[in-house]
Amino acid sequence: MAHRVGILTAGGDCPGLNATIRGVARALYQKIPGIQIVGIVDGFRGLIEGESHEMSPSDFSGILTRGGTILGTARTPYKKMKVVENDVDKVASMKKNYKKMDLDCLFVLGGNGTHKTANLLSEEGLHVIGLPKTIDNDIWGTDVTFGFHTAVDLGTEVVDRIHTTACSHKRVMVIEIMGNKTGWLTLYTGIAGGADCILIPEIPFDPKKVVKALERRADRGHGFSIITVAEGAYDVSEAKLKKKERAEKRAAAGEVTITNRLAKQIAEANFDTRVVVPGHYLRGGSPSSYDRALASTFGVYAADLYSRGIFGVTVAQRNNKVIHNLLSEVAGKTKTVPPEDQMIFTARSLGISFGD
Ligand code: F6P
């Protein structure tokens, strides 16, 4: 019987999705001649609504370097997956459409939320193989996710360019880097870009200590400073609050992130201060050579898992070796930056302040 597999990309996009899709497809075509690949449109939305199309080898040509995802993506939050809305039972619909599409397996490319839904489908009896994407690098059980290093490169370019204008104007530049729950991207970008202060959710900061660090730099004759702050960073007073309370307080103050408040506190200490938010720029465009190679390796490995009949797992890399973890082990966990991480040690040893 001919093999038929589905593939979808879910959650926020990132560079390297197409390179991974291509890796999966090319390896499958080589291993299993005649295999039919079905592209599911806009992530789990397409699976819920039954929107898909049969793909051919030419669809996977010329996409190694292309940003975004040829399949489209959407955010369909895990917490709503089991909620019946507009009479649609999403889990039942996904199971029904998997059957209707006559799939032997579903390749799911996504981040933390996606892995939770992938696990749910696996527990419901579908054959699922996950692939770890995200610029946040926060998927449990893998040292690296595809998309992360491209975002570090893009973030570093932003910091480099901000550096020169900061220097000309003798300003403090506060650069907000994506990463709502974890600080990997802010940490790596800060180190690679030579930031003076790095603020991440894992280390709540004291604004007074940030100002002190800037004053110490000014005393040493440096006219400007660079701060990279994660969009999910918070200060020591907010650290005492529950996540919900923090969000409510910020909403009441018209704040989403802490960046503008911090910039104001720095300006009040007599530093000429500006804020830069590269935002989704960090998720756009072509993947770096590192991510192209990683995405291809992960894609090929996922195809191999399929040919070996290994399901309910997601691809990972640990200590330079590509491996797979059980979806049930990964789902619901977040890989945060440990306080003893080598890069934290590196930053502190370089004299970079975490505001703690
Ligand atoms: O998870 C990737 C990410 O880019 C986060 O860093 C960021 O918090 C979030 O997605 C932004 O989501 P959206 O694209 O839905 O605005």
Fold topology:
Layout: E1 4-9, H1 17-31, E2 36-40, H2 44-49, E3 52-55, H3 90-100, E4 105-110, H4 112-123, E5 128-132, H5 148-169, E6 172-177, H6 184-193, E7 197-199, H7 207-219, E8 225-230, H8 236-239, H9 243-252, H10 259-268, E9 273-276, H11 289-307, E10 313-318, E11 321-326, H12 327-330, H13 342-349
Parallel strand pairs: 1-2, 1-4, 4-5, 5-10, 6-8, 6-9, 7-8
Antiparallel strand pairs: 2-3, 10-11
The structure holds 6-O-phosphono-beta-D-fructofuranose (F6P).
6-O-phosphono-beta-D-fructofuranose (F6P) binds next to loops.
Keywords:
binds 6-O-phosphono-beta-D-fructofuranose, alpha/beta, Rossmann fold, 16% strand, 40% helix, four-stranded parallel sheet, elongated, seven-stranded mixed sheet
Describe the structure concisely for a colleague:
Helices cover 40% and strands 16% of the residues. It is α/β, with parallel strands linked by helices.
Describe this structure in words.
By secondary structure, this protein is α/β, with parallel strands linked by helices. The protein has 2 domains: 4-146 and 287-330, Rossmann fold, CATH 3.40.50.450; 151-283, Rossmann fold (3-Layer(aba) Sandwich), CATH 3.40.50.460. Helices cover 40% and strands 16% of the residues. The protein has helices at 17-31, 44-49, 90-100, 112-123, 148-169, 184-193, 207-219, 236-239, 243-252, 259-268, 289-307, 327-330, 342-349, and strands at 4-9, 36-40, 52-55, 105-110, 128-132, 172-177, 197-199, 225-230, 273-276, 313-318, 321-326. The termini are far apart. The structure holds 6-O-phosphono-beta-D-fructofuranose. 6-O-phosphono-beta-D-fructofuranose (F6P) is lined by residues 12, 75, 111, 134-136, 178-180, 231, 283.
